[in-house]
Amino acid sequence: MALTVLLDLRLKADTLAAAPAMLREILSDTRAFDGCLGVDVLVDADDAAHLILLERWASVEADAVYRAWRAGTGASALGSLLASAPQVSKFETASDI
Question: Which InterPro entries does the annotation name (predicted)?
Fold first, then answer.
């Protein structure tokens, strides 16, 4: 079953200028990762330092493999942009509602 992941990011104010280029590079790898169906970046209309990454994965397993890769050999410099730890929420589509 497909999985939707919301990654809630709060950027440091002094990283706003550098963030787009770094995120493009990081998300290039994410979008190319096996099982990734797409990633959209949503910017808070009232706070440019608040982003939501809307990720779509082919399965829970594909997402788990990706998260393990990012925690290991696929680690990125994303943390250097962040004012606080990212919040991750995972959702499956309810087909009976």
Answer: ABM_dom (IPR007138), Dimeric_a/b-barrel (IPR011008)
Q: Which residue range is the domain that position 53 belongs to?
A: 3-74
Q: How many domains does the chain have?
A: 1
Question: What is 24-73 written as a DSSP string?
Answer: HHHHHHHHHSTTEEEEEEEEETTEEEEEEEEEEES-HHHHHHHHHHHHTT
pLDDT tens for the 97 residues of the chain, in order? 899 999 999 999 999 999 999 999 999 999 999 999 999 999 999 999 999 999 999 999 999 999 999 999 999 999 999 999 999 999 998 989 9
Alpha-carbon gap, residue 26 to 70, rounded angstroms: 10
Are 82 and 24 contacting, i.e. CB atoms less than 8 angstroms apart? no
Is 61 part of a structural domain of the chain? yes
